[in-house]
Amino acid sequence: MKKSNILNTLRMQIALHYLKASGLILLLMCVILYYSIASVVLSEATSSTKTAVEKSGMYIDLYIDRLKAVSGLLAENAQLVTYFSSAERDPTIKHSLLSMIETTMATDRFIQSVVIVSKDGQVLSNEKGLIMSMSSNMMKEQWYVAAVNNGSKPVLTSARMQHFSMDKDNWVISISREIKNAEGQNIGVLLIDIQYKVIEDFLANLDLGKDGFSFIINDNGEVVYHKDTAYFENYLKQQQLQQIIANQAGYDKEKNTLTHTYKLNNADWTFVGVSSQDGLLMIKRQLLEIFLLVGMTLFIIAAVSVALFAGRITVPFQRLEKAMQNIEHGLKEIPIDEKGCFEAQSLAKYFNRMIGQIEKLMQEITEKEKHLRATEISALHSQINPHFLYNTLDTIVWMAEFNDSEKVIEITKALAQFFRLSLSGGNEMTTVENELDHVRQYLFIQKERYGDKLNYKIVCNQSIRNVRMPKILLQPIVENALYHGIRSVPRNGHIHISAIASGDDVELIVRDNGQGFDVKQLNRESTEKRTKLGGVGIKNVDQRIKLYYGPNYGITINSSLTIGTTVTIKIPQEMN
Fold first, then answer.
1. CA dist., res. 187 & res. 522, Å (int)
2. In the 8-state DSSP scheme, what is residue 204?
3. Of 360, 305, 355, 302, nearest in space to 347 by CA
4. pLDDT tens-digit map of 548-569
5. What is the DSSP string of 305-358?
6. With pLDDT > 70 as the criterion, what percentage of the chain qualifies?
7. What confidence tier does 383 reach under pLDDT thresholds 50, 70, 90?
8. Where are the beta strands (DSSP E) in 140-287?
């Protein structure tokens, strides 16, 4: 009876602690997941809004930039300058200029009109019967002077720059450009009017949510674009837009909006997008409902399970724990008492299976490590890329232009041989003889580019010609010797390559008389600095050798400033 009471008490203690821990964990997980998911959704919404606003702003920016380029081409047209500079103006040139205006308008359906006004009041335009204030001295006209001083900034006006009305169909975006003669004196003004709806077309696909909106405001605080025309004449509404810009762009929790601004490069405009986060509120509400439902369900399941199994799991699992501790003495199947609850019986059955599977997995891991080693070798090899192809092709083109067909044929053959040896039929291994031939083709091509600046010599011990080795070990070393060694010194450079037998090993030695470097200092430099000095290429070659042959093989570097560098590659002798 007492034993039964003790078991019941233990089961109750386990149940209470389990339920408390489960409740706290569930609550903590729900809180963390809620804020994490909400943060991710908000981050995605922020990124989406930023991308959409900047994309639309960039489209408008690019369009204005194109209009500036068009206005520049028109204003600097030689015929136009000649026509406006002459006292007597040739009708033929005028006809040509009018044709140019028509051509310009045909390239852009949003251009409403192109008006060119000379300083003495003559007008060239696609429109007839223009209503504009004109005189024989246009510098007395206010709108003319304003157009000259405006540079090429786009300005929102009514058509023909008359009194501004609230009829959007009559609105245009005007870009002006001063026309100057050869002495830099003003001889006229170019005006290009673009239909206001061009902005609406660019922003038609901008999705800012149900209550979202966008607007454009210039540096003077004047509204350039808003879908609600009331903002163009209501001062209080304009102040609201100014306040939006003044506040830091981002998420407004109170209004549930995301704001992002984009400053146009080609105008004194600021494009602002205010996105209403309708979906964010809905997602938060759904998350709360889901977490509440899941949390209650899990808590009920935890309470039921602990009440049923708390007393049954203690002893069987203690026995199983002892059996698992015996694994330290070796992977041997151990007889286990399989009495107890179903879970304990299942674990006991699978325990012995696990022992056998562990042995099998260890064998598989050994095989996979071999494959991984081969994969790492391939990955390192792929980083060694002979990037001189462009310069070689450029040299071939240059020689072809000078009809030096003999040299073109020689370099082309060398390049073909170089890549044939690089590919080597898809094999990772080659011979010392082929590796030396590979670097010989590389140096032959570089010799054609650098001339007397580059001299080289390649020697090989005949007894090791057929020794097998990983391909493309020498070329990165020689490339470093050329680009980071002899190319920057004033004297003629020399690269000496030798392949010799050293006991049971082979040494491939590359010497140059370049500028050299401090090896210890190089090791202390940043990765970017080592990359500039060619250290990454040498490191990759050294890693490949060690992956193939182990830590006893690899690269040794000896270098002295202003004297030169010697790089020694050590590999074992492996004959075909």
1. 63
2. T
3. 355
4. 888 899 999 998 888 899 999 9
5. HHHHHHHHHHHHHHHHHHHHHGGGG-S--------S-HHHHHHHHHHHHHHHHH
6. 75
7. very low
8. 155-158, 171-180, 186-195, 213-218, 223-226, 251-252, 257-263, 269-276
Q: Pick the closest to residue 325 from 317, 360, 361, 341 (CA basis).
A: 317
* Helix or strand holding residue 123 (H, E): strand 123-125
Question: Do 104 and 193 contact (CB within 8 A), yes or no?
Answer: no
| Angstrom distance (rounded) from CA 160 to CA 176 | 12
pLDDT digits (tens, 9 = 90+) for 31-85: 787 777 777 777 777 788 888 888 888 988 898 888 888 888 888 888 888 888 8
- Check: CB of residue 495 under 8 Å from CB of residue 486: yes
Count of alpha carbons within 13 angstroms of residue 291, beta-carbon side:
20
DSSP 8-state assignment for residue 211: T
Q: Tell me the C-alpha distance between 317 and 348, whole Å.
A: 9
As a whole number of angstroms, the distance between CA 514 and CA 529 comes to 18
> With left for phi above 0 and alpha for psi between -120 and 50, is residue 184 left, alpha or beta?
left
Alpha helices by DSSP H, listed for 427-554, are 432-450, 474-481, 519-524, 527-532, 535-549
Give the bridge partners for 431, in sequence order. 468
pLDDT of residue 468: 92
Cα Rg, the chain, nearest whole Å: 40
CA angle 397, 399, 401 (to 5 degrees): 70
Which residues have C-beta within 8 Å of that of residue 149, sequence separation ≥ 6?
Answer: none
| Ramachandran region, residue 509 (left: φ > 0; alpha: ψ -120 to 50; beta: rest) | beta
Q: CA nearest 268: which of 308, 304, 217?
A: 217
List the single range of 10-19, 144-153, 291-300, 366-375 with lowest mean pLDDT. Answer: 366-375
Alpha-carbon distance 63 to 193, whole Å?
13
How far is the C-alpha of 449 from the C-alpha of 395, rounded, in Å?
7
Q: What is the pTM of this model?
A: 0.46
Give the C-alpha separation, 435 to 429, whole Å: 10
Strand partners, 214: 273
**CA 477 from centroid of its chain's CA atoms:** 30
Q: What is the DSSP letter of 517?
A: -
Q: Is the dihedral of CA 56, 58, 61, 67 positive or negative?
A: negative
Q: Copy the structure tokens of residue 494.
A: 């020399």
pLDDT at 544: 84
Query: Which residue type sits at 483?
Result: Y
